[in-house]
Every structure is written in C-alpha cells, then in structure tokens.
Design a protein that fits this description.
The complex is a heterodimer. Chain A is of the alpha/beta class. Chain A has helices at about 10-25, 45-50, 65, 125-135, 155-165, 185-195, 295-310, 385-395, 400-405, 405-410, 420-434; strands spanning about 5, 25-30, 70-75, 75-80, 85-90, 95, 100, 105-110, 120, 145-150, 170, 200-205, 210-215, 220-225, 230, 235-240, 240-245, 260, 275, 280, 325-330, 330-335, 350-355, 360-370, 375-380. The longest helix of chain B is centred in the middle third of the chain and has 29 residues, at about 290-315. The model of chain B is unreliable at about 1-15 (pLDDT under 50). The chains are: A alpha/beta, B mainly alpha. Bound molecules: flavin-adenine dinucleotide (FAD) and iron/sulfur cluster (2 copies). Chain B: GO terms for molecular function: 4 iron, 4 sulfur cluster binding; metal ion binding.
Chain lengths: ~425, ~525
C-alpha cells in the first residue's frame, strides 16, 4: 500500500491527511517534533491569556487519529534522502515513504541582532515558545517590562497577551504607523490610537539596535537604533515576520529558495515530493498574492487541493478571491479582495473610507478609479459576510453597486446598530470632493 | 521618551488575576449581606426583620455592583475572559469546589430539610431564615414566607445582580445586553411578582409562573391543581387552557420562528440563572463526543419519563364513565397516543433523512411510550398502574428530576460541570424544544465562509458543550437540538465567524468539505456530490 508521509502536523499537513483519508485507503503518517497532536497555532495567545487551556486548542479529540487510521509519529526529521525515499530522524530512526508532503511551517525571523539568542529573547510561534514565555514573563514581578520588536499581526497579539498579565509593554514598530505596509492610513492610524488606549508604549519608526545581556546571559535591556535610548526589560519578543522552516531541507536534493519551491500543482522538483503551507514557495506568485503565503487559510486550501492530486485527480492550486482576518486587541479585522496600503497601492486603485466617531469601527472600500470596479474591502469593528463579497468580486460589480448592497453583507450579531446609511453618505461626500 | 515610559508604567490597570483593593472591599460588603442571612439561619432574632432583610439584600447588591463596575468599567469594551482558567473559582479549583459543595448543601436542605431554614408545621410562625423573609412575603401576598418564597427571592436577586454583572462584561454586545434584560424582567415579573400578586387577588388560584411550561412544571396537571383551576372559575379555566396551549401551540410556533432560544435564553428562569450567576462557569461544560452521547440518552429518557408520569397521573384521577364526563381514561389514553403517533409519523415521513441514526432512537422512545400506554390500560386497577401507584411514579419523578437533578445537581454543580448541566442533561422542556429546533425551525448559527481559524474559543465557551468549532472549521451551519442560542460563541469568536440567524429552512443544514475561498471548481467538485 502506498505510504504517504507528511512532515508537519499543522493545518496544512493535517488537512491534506484528512482529505486523503476521505478519498482513499492509503497509509498515512504525520510527523511532528512539536506536539503529540494537532493544535491550533492561532490559539496560542488564548492559552497564555487564560481564555483556554492548551487542550482546548486541539480541533480533534485524541481518538480521532486512530479512528481515521492516521499514524502520528513524534520526532525531528534531520535529513531527507530522496533517492532511497527515506527520512532520517535526529534520534537515528528511519522511515520510508512513497509520497512525501513537506508541511513544516515557519519560524520567527531573526535579523542578526546582537543578543538575539539570549535567554528571555524569543519569537512566538511554537508550543515551546509559549512555554518559554510562561517561564520568562509569567507576571509583572518576574517581568517588569517587555519589549516587542516588529509591528505585525503576531507582534500585536503578543502585546495583548503580555498586557493581559499587566506586564508593561514597549512596542517597537519599524514603520511610521502600525502595519501600514498593508493597512491604508486611516485604518492604521485608528489602530495606533487603539494600541495606545491599551496603555502600550508604542514606538513608531523605531528599530532595534541591540539586546544587552546581564551577567547570567539573560536579557537586561535593549537599545533603540534611532535614539540610542536604552530600555530595561526582562523579556524581548521578536515578531518581525516569519520565514519558511526548511533549514534541514537545504542540503537535500529538493530545490529551495526562501521556501521549498513548488509549481502550481504544489510539486517540488523531485517526483512524489510536495510542499504545502507556510513553507512552500510558488515559483511564480499567483495574482496579487505573495509567493510565500504564511496564513492559516492558504495552508488549509493547499492541503485540500493536494489531497485531490495525490488521490488521482490532479489539480492546480488555484485559490479564489483573497481573504484574511485578524484582531487588534478589541477590534476585529476582515478583508476580502485587495485593498492596499499607501506603499504598495497601484495607480488605478482608489478608496472610499468611513470611520465611526467612537474610533473603533471603520471600513475602506477599494475600487478601480478608471472602471469603477470593486476591488476589495477592509472592515474593522464590523463583521461582514465572506460569501457576499466573494460573489461581488466574482461578478465584478462596480463600487456604487457594492455601496448599495452593503447591508446584505452585514454579519454583526442581531440587534447591533447598522451603519450602511452612514457609509453611503460618506461615499457620496467623498465622490463630490473627488 | 522616557517620560512616556514612566507614564505607562504608573497607570493602574485592574489586575486580571488578582483582586483589586476595590474588589476586595466589594466582596466584603457582599459577604456582610450574606452574613446577615447566615445569622438569621442560626436563629439570631432580629427585632426589625424588614430592616435587616433590606440591609442584607442591599449589601449583597451593592457589593456585586461595585465589584462589577471595578472589574469591567475601567477596561475597554471587548471580550473579558482574561485569566478565567487561572482563577480557582472558574477552573474547578478549591474555591470552585467549595462553592459547589455549599450550593449543593443549600439545595439539599431546601428540598429535604426545610425545617433547618426555619419552616415550622402546624401553623406556628416561622423561625430562622424563613422568618426573616416574612415581612416581604407579607407585603406581596399577605401571608408568611415559605422556604420556596425565600428561595424565589434569593433566586431573583441572584439573577438581577449577576445579570447586571453580565451586562457590564458583555457591554460591547447589544444582543447579550437585551437578552439579559429580558431574562431579568421575566424572572422579576413573571416568576416572582405576578404569582404573588395573583395570590393576593384570588387566593384560590394555584401558584402559577406563567412562563413555566409543562413539562418544566411537571406538576401542572396534577389533580389538586386541576381542582384549584376549576374551582377558581373562569380565570382558572383560562389558565388551564393557557397551560395546555403553551406546550402544544405556542412553543412550536415560537420555536419554529426563532429557535428554542426564545425560551431558553430569553424567558426561562433556569436559563436565566445559568446565564447570569452561572456565567463564570460556562467554560466547564464537557465538550467530548462521549458527553454528547450521554446527554442525548439522559435527556430523552427524562422526557419519556415525564410523559409517562404525567399521563399516568392524569389517568388515575379520570373516571371510566363516559356519561359523567366526556374525558374518560380511555379517551385520554387515545388522545395521548394519537398525538404522539401523529408527531412520530409526520417526523418519519418528512424528516427521516435528516435524522439519520437518531431516527432509530426516536422510534425506540416512541414505542416504549406507546406500549406502556397500552399496558397501562390493560394492567391497571383504579389505584395502581402495573405494580406502581401513580403516586409513586410522581414522587419518584419529583424527587429524582424535580429536586435532585434540577436543583442539587443542576445548580449545585455549576462550578464543576458548567452552568447548564440541568438544561443539557436533565430538562425535558429543552428536549422537546430541541426536537422542534432540530427539525422544524428557521434558526441556525451561520458560519462565515472560510474565515474560521479553528482557535476553539467558541467551543470552549459554549455552555451546552457543543463543539462549535467542529462545524465552523468545515464552514457548516450549526443546527443542534441542544443549542440554546445564548450567542456567546458568536461573541467570543475573534474572527467574526458565527452569527445566530433565523432564515429559510432551505439550505439550513449545509455540510461542506471544501470551504469558501478555495478554487471554485474544487468546491463544486467536492461539495455538490
Ligand atoms: C501566534 C500566531 C498567530 C497566528 N494567527 C493567525 C491568524 O489569525 N490567521 C491566519 O491566517 N494565520 C495566523 N497565523 C499563521 C498560521 O498559524 C500559519 O500560517 C499556519 O499555522 C501554518 O501552518 P502549517 O501547517 O503550514 O505549518 P505549522 O503549523 O507551522 O506546522 C508545521 C509543523 O511541522 C513541524 N516541523 C517542522 N520541521 C520539522 C522537522 N524537521 N521534523 C519534524 N517536524 C517538523 C513543526 O514543529 C510544526 O509542528 C498565526 C501564527 C502564529 C504563530
Ligand atoms: S452553540 Fe453558541 S449559541 Fe448555541 S448554546 Fe453554544 S454558545 Fe450558545
Ligand atoms: S468559529 Fe471563531 S471561535 Fe470558533 S474556532 Fe473558528 S475562529 Fe475560533
């Protein structure tokens, strides 16, 4: 029987395994060095904040795997020998495969800062990171101040986490405004204010120069590049993005760049070896997407597609309209289609922006100023229906149509106030100005 | 720059894990109020009972209000679950167990040893805790308090003060606030004030909490009550008819339109206590599949039990002689069997596919009842049904379900099994409404395309132990008989994936394999098998 081996028990690997099981009787083994069972990485923050226990992060009960005949193996793969189709583990064990799926995810970026490997300095990615965080920042007595380096989605989650334990946080953000490489200015500004409202010491346009050690090899302070200011701290969170976790693959025959290189079928250069999820790099980016997509949904979708290919129904990875979501402290964020921040914005893209007076809700709708075609929407503090925007994008509606059909898309709980009228007015006013 | 740093360091924020000074004071105030009750319990003779009763309740209320204000009003609007699993009280720690034991003891005394609360027999005046409540009872209905009056008052107070706390906790969420105002209102007006005032107006009427519907008030059709209803004239008859219409006509219609939440989360008193005082424990409900299996067996057995018990009780006080009154034993049994058969046959015709394996269990339940009913007719004498007295059946139900399950376990075990143990495992009303909701309702929880990140907040905070995530991560609507529509899963979801909605019956149940956002062809291929 064909033996499918999957390295990585994250969302990508597990989705692939589940769908292969649905479609076939092949033998499946999932390998991970991180945890015995699949857990939801996105929920790590809630464990530290006391909203959940670690066991709640497991989407399937422990009996699920045996029942579905998916073998789980704990171990760290050190080398892949694609000639003999063998995996070598760090403890000397070996495992043969017929088909290999690489789904090894990401690791936090470290940009060679001085002191980046000190005790109390870490990223937030794995279960082990969570355990270390608990060790170095359990409360505001052990950790009198924490510094977070890197203003992305994980950085702001880490700020919220530490804040929940009343640990004072200094948040170093390289950009002039939070996440403005992605968010348009109005939204980014609003989030800046929201972060400060949560008593975070937000430092924009600030880079890390170096991390200074105490006599025990633990972090004592950091220095800011721009001002040379020294900030005492007991914990440094490095959250300046992630990159594919593929060091162990580099000396195999599998072709890599930043990630494992794959074509649209998610095939690597070696037959019967595939890569999906955070660690895969498309040889050619798809549409507006990045060639490495490090989000939950894309990992899941690649798993869904690859299962088809492996089970005899060969398909390209051909994702539909882009969508994503996040939460900035109390403000939920959803995006459908493409809305660019000032930096990467194409010439033809124009925006309609509306913000509520309470400073916790706003939306930005992007359209093509030449054709009026709807391009995408960012919504903060208001929930919207994925299905509706997916349809509007497919139907290539124009901006006026979208504005008039916003109420269809509202997904806030019943009895919530609606703002479609305000948004329509904002649209009309902004049109007049333009 | 460093100035800024100091500023943010000096800001006092409420601690997520430890109690703030203000919260400690608030607790002290609240406990002082409780202490007055304890003193009364041990027969301290308060000369001015009205004063001390008022003082006690006021202190408890003020303590809770100060505590809640301090805990929530100083923070931004949003989800307030920080530290829930670190606190002893809400994570089955020592404090949790202690509260569980105390509550359980209270219920045991209340149901089985009310004399320790101060209930006296032979018309002597009350003593102890119950006596403390005499002035209030006198004010409302001009009669001395009973243990049930004391319980009702404390119950109502609990819903009001913890309802306030709940509304602050979820003050970002209008749905939760409205729902809580609703349960607070129904408890105060319908369960507490109106029955007392009704008694005042017409003391022949039986105590009737209008929002309590059979089988929740399983005693509603017992002989003494029927006699009371009938003796009370037109009003009584009206109430009796209302009681029957509630379960046969009103509930199916409302559940069809809004799901069982119209009752369980907006009206019901048990639900009200679970949602307010029980809120700190909602995350303790068991989410494992095995718990779901047990739940279905237990709750449906209770339903079968209550149907049989009620039928038997009514059966025994009916006559055999059709010339005296049209509703004879035979006619009654025929009516009941016809009704049940109708429900069963219609369900099997229209919903067989949806039910799947559950159809078999439904059939088993149905046949147990029908065969028992036939047995009832052929093997019963005037006083005995089979070998039992119907009275035995009734008292067994009252003891096992009415007292032990709904009170002692249902509320006493909040801190151990979560806040809706009774609603989930024991309530026959929930079973009926759940059946309606699963099969004939517009209600569902819609999932938002492909947005779920499988984080598990929804499942963790579902008080009914529903594994919401299992549906959400497949993009599948949640249509579950046990869902009481509290809306908390939707509230705590960090990605805006869940929405409680009433929509069309078509496409309500939508199992999918591939979620929205992926290749359109792939979705078509896999989902439209
Ligand atoms: C804190 C945090 C919050 C996030 N929040 C969101 C969010 O809200 N929305 C969103 O879309 N995305 C979010 N993400 C990103 C998302 O979690 C990832 O994109 C996703 O988990 C990637 O899944 P994956 O299956 O590709 O890899 P992973 O989940 O990283 O799984 C890879 C597994 O492979 C194991 N592994 C690697 N190498 C080896 C080896 N040599 N031998 C054995 N095992 C190995 C790893 O230990 C790991 O367990 C978040 C990420 C983090 C860290
Ligand atoms: S599924 Fe959601 S709405 Fe239903 S009971 Fe559970 S938490 Fe409440
Ligand atoms: S529905 Fe929301 S709360 Fe539930 S697992 Fe998905 S993202 Fe998390």
């Amino acid at each position: 029987m064909e033996h499918i081996v999957i390295i990585g028990n994250g969302i990508s690997g597990v989705t692939a395994a589940r769908h292969i099981r649905k479609l076939s009787n092949k033998k499946i083994t999932i390998i991970s060095a991180e945890s015995d069972y699949f857990f939801s990485r996105t929920a790590l923050m809630y464990v530290y904040m006391g909203h959940m226990k670690f066991e709640h992060t497991k989407p399937y009960e422990d009996w699920f795997w045996e029942k579905n005949r998916i073998d789980l193996k704990k171990g760290f793969v050190e080398t892949i020998d694609t000639d003999t189709k063998t995996l070598h583990f760090s403890d000397g064990e070996k495992l043969d495969y017929d088909t290999l799926i690489i789904a090894t995810g990401s690791k936090p970026n470290k940009f060679g800062w001085k002191g980046q490997d000190l005790k109390g300095v870490q990223g937030l990615y794995s279960k082990q990171d969570l355990e270390n965080l608990e060790l170095y920042a359990p409360n505001n007595k052990t950790c009198k101040r924490a510094v977070i380096v890197g203003g992305g989605l994980i950085g702001i989650e880490l700020a919220e986490m530490l804040n929940s334990r009343n640990i004072p946080v200094t948040f170093l953000v390289r950009e002039s405004s939070f996440w403005n490489g992605v968010l348009p200015d109005g939204e980014s500004d609003m989030i800046n204010r929201h972060i400060k409202n949560h008593h975070i010491d937000l430092r924009l346009s600030s880079n890390l120069k170096e991390i200074i050690s105490d006599e025990n090899g633990k972090v004592k302070s950091i220095i800011i590049e721009e001002t040379n200011e020294e900030i005492n701290c007991d914990f440094v969170g490095l959250t300046a993005g992630v990159s594919p976790n593929i060091d162990f693959i580099k000396h195999s025959d599998i072709e890599t760049n930043e990630g494992v290189l794959v074509n649209r079928f998610l095939e690597t250069n070696i037959p019967n070896v595939y890569a999906i999820g955070d660690c895969a790099e498309q040889r050619e980016a798809i549409g507006n997407r990045k060639s490495i997509e490090a989000v939950w949904y894309t990992g899941r979708m690649m798993g869904e597609v690859l299962a088809q290919t492996i089970c005899g129904h060969k398909m390209t990875y051909n994702p539909g309209h882009w969508f994503n979501s996040a939460k900035f402290f109390d403000i939920e964020y959803q995006t459908y289609g493409w809305v660019h921040g000032t930096k990467g914005k194409p010439d033809y893209e124009a925006h309609v922006h509306w913000k509520h007076d309470d400073d916790t809700k706003c939306i930005t709708i992007a359209f093509n100023k030449n054709t009026n075609q709807f391009l995408g929407i960012n919504t903060l503090g208001i929930r919207m229906r994925h299905e509706v925007f997916d349809r509007l994008l497919t139907e290539k509606r124009d901006i006026g149509y979208v504005i008039n059909h916003l109420s269809e898309a509202n997904f806030d709980p019943e009895f919530y106030k609606h703002y479609e009228q305000d948004i329509q007015n904002a649209y009309k006013n902004q049109l007049q100005i333009v | 720059m460093s100035n800024k740093l100091n500023q943010s360091m000096s800001l006092a924020k409420p601690d997520a894990q430890d109690l703030s000074a203000k919260q400690k004071i608030a607790l002290a105030i609240g406990f002082t109020g409780c202490f007055i009750l304890v003193l009364a319990l041990f027969n301290t003779d308060f000369s001015n009972k009205s004063l001390f009763l008022t003082l006690s309740i006021a202190l408890i209320a003020v303590g809770t209000i100060i505590f809640s204000n301090d805990a929530y009003l100083n923070t931004s609007k949003g989800i307030k679950n920080d530290g829930i699993w670190f606190k002893s009280i809400s994570s089955k720690g020592v404090v949790g167990w202690l509260i569980g034991v105390l509550l359980t003891l209270f219920y045991i005394v209340l149901y089985f040893y009310p004399k320790y609360l101060g209930l006296t027999s032979n018309g002597e005046s009350n003593t102890g805790l119950i006596a403390l409540f005499d002035p209030l009872s006198d004010l409302l209905s001009s009669r001395p308090a009973s243990q049930w009056f004391v319980y009702g008052t404390l119950y109502t107070v609990a819903i009001l003060i913890f309802g306030y706390k709940f509304m602050l906790k979820y003050r970002n969420n209008r749905h939760e606030k409205l729902r809580t105002i609703s349960v607070m209102f129904f408890q105060l007006a319908f369960a507490f004030l109106i029955p007392e005032l009704m008694y005042r107006l017409n003391s022949d009427l039986p105590y009737y909490d209008l929002k309590s519907i059979w089988p929740l008030n399983y005693y509603n059709f017992e002989r003494y009550r029927i006699n009371q209803f009938i003796d009370a004239g037109d009003v009584g008859l009206g109430l009796l008819i209302f009681g029957i219409a509630s379960i046969l006509i009103i509930t199916p219609i409302l559940t069809y339109k809004y799901g069982k939440r119209w009752y369980c989360s907006w009206v019901c008193g048990c639900g009200a206590l679970a949602e307010t005082a029980g809120d700190p424990y909602r995350q303790l409900s068991d989410k494992r599949q095995i718990a779901w299996k047990i739940e279905r067996w237990v709750v449906h057995s209770v339903l079968v039990f209550v149907v049989l018990m009620t039928t038997a009780v009514i059966y025994t006080y009916l006559g055999n002689d059709a010339s005296k009154y049209w509703l004879t034993r035979k006619v009654f049994l025929l009516l009941v069997s016809t009704l049940l058969s109708l429900v069963f046959i219609l369900t099997m015709i229209f919903k067989r596919k949806e039910l799947g394996k559950d159809a078999r269990y439904g059939a088993i339940g149905y046949f147990v009842i029908i065969i028992t009913l036939i047995g009832l007719h052929y093997f019963s004498t005037d006083t005995k049904l089979f070998l039992f007295k119907s009275e035995t059946l009734r008292t067994t139900y009252a003891f096992l379900i009415g007292s032990i399950f709904s009170g002692v376990i249902g509320t006493g075990f909040y801190p151990i099994f979560g806040s809706r143990v009774w609603c989930r495992f024991g309530c026959p009303m929930a079973a009926i409404l759940g059946f309606q909701q699963r099969l004939f309702s517009k209600f569902r929880i819609t999932t938002n395309g492909g947005q779920c990140i499988s984080c598990g907040n929804c499942s963790t905070y579902c008080e009914m132990g529903i594994d919401v995530r299992a549906y959400a991560q497949k993009g599948e609507n949640i249509v579950r008989s046990s869902c009481v529509g509290c809306g908390i899963c939707s509230a705590v979801c960090p990605r805006g994936v869940l929405k409680l909605e009433n929509g069309s019956m078509k496409g309500r149940i939508n199992p999918t394999e591939i979620l929205l956002g992926n290749d359109v062809n792939l979705m078509d291929l896999v989902n439209q098998k």
